[in-house]
Amino acid sequence: MAHPVADPVGRSALRKVAWRLVPFLGLLYFVNYLDRTNIGFAKLTMSEDLGLTETMFGLASGLFFIGYLFFEVPSNLALHRFGARRWIARIMVSWGVVASAMAFVQSAGWLYALRVLLGIAEAGFFPGVLLYLTWWLPRAQRVQLIGAFLVAVPLSSALGAPLSGAIIQYADGLFGLEGWRVMFLVEGLPAVLLGVACWFYLADRPADARWLTPEERGWLDRTIAAEGEAGHREASPWRAMASPRVVALGFVYFGVVYGLYAVSFFLPTVVAGFAERFDATYSIFETGAIVAVPFLAGAVTMVLWSRHSDRTGERRWHLALPAALGGVTIPVALHLDSPFTVMAVITLTAVGICCALPVFWHFPPLLLTGAGAAAGIALINSLGNTAGFAAPYITGWISDATGSIRPALWLVGLAMLLSAVGILLLSRSRAGADGGPAGVSREAVRPAGR
Hints:
This protein has 450 residues and is mainly α. It has helices spanning 8-37, 39-50, 54-82, 84-101, 108-122, 125-134, 139-150, 152-170, 179-201, 214-229, 237-242, 244-272, 274-278, 284-312, 316-333, 339-360, 364-367, 370-402, 406-427, 442-445. The protein has a single domain, classed as MFS general substrate transporter like domains (Growth Hormone, Chain: A, Up-down Bundle), CATH 1.20.1250.
């Protein structure tokens, strides 16, 4: 069992870190994920304006990840060198400018180009924040607080879906622009403002945090340093990226992310398709409200599941079971016979995906430290996010080729099931109760306080 921190100074330090950093970083990720996926709602009217087929839309959605993947590792190494405060501020301002520029695309070619640029601008944000949190959070409390940070993913879809739908429907014609263009413009600007705020709000390390007492700064520094000395963890960037276990974790993450982006990009299309299948027609705003439901459920269960993982100290099954749940439910959903049952099963899919995400990120820091952690975490995120290109493009291509989205969702289910199997195989040897990957000593995976 993972025990709570006994030292009152430690409890006070962690409480301050949790309230100071996690909500702010979660807000940044909320805007980040919204700007990345709001193209799914823009599609409802943008495709006709720009003459996009399903395959062309899938390509536009996925091209984001081309620039993103190539620049992930260099960006994270730059964050490790120059500090999180400066580098996260730079990322946010640049992606906000590009996200807002999406409002002015005039052709599919310009859409493709700006999606690539958006990926380059955003590269390094997510792995950078994860690396940053390892500098502040002891391992035993990390999954719960990373879960609180990652709840921005389902909340971005849950709150962003009706917001995007409302802007497209009710702001059509504002500034002389179509509704989807107004949406891109309005939802890109907050990233610029928050990027400026980062410069003044964040501290790079506990030693730089004036909002902690000297005793609290010392406790965090000692605790994090002691965990870095326990077990063998790779500090070399090149060796980290060449590690078979790091690559294997990247492919496990691929399956979970494949499900996440397939649902994020195409769920609005699925709901819009209820008009043909069930003679149930919804406005764009109503479509957004319906799309929000699975992600709201995912947000709640993500927090509870990650808290349970920290309380029990178990990680392996806390990742495998929700990944399997997502894999089993998503292909079944579109074979059901009413909008209610379809959305109920897709809600289970969203719950599975959301619960798997924070637990997954417990594993990489068990293998990596220093610059090796910067490179390795970025590589894992890059390998996993190749699914961000594959899922929308393959789903769109299969939908065009077959006239149905159902075969594509069977492929999504298979990818998630392979992730569940992969983490069980990777962690079964010398895993210990904490469920660390094979080859990690029990000392390296034991939570503080044991």
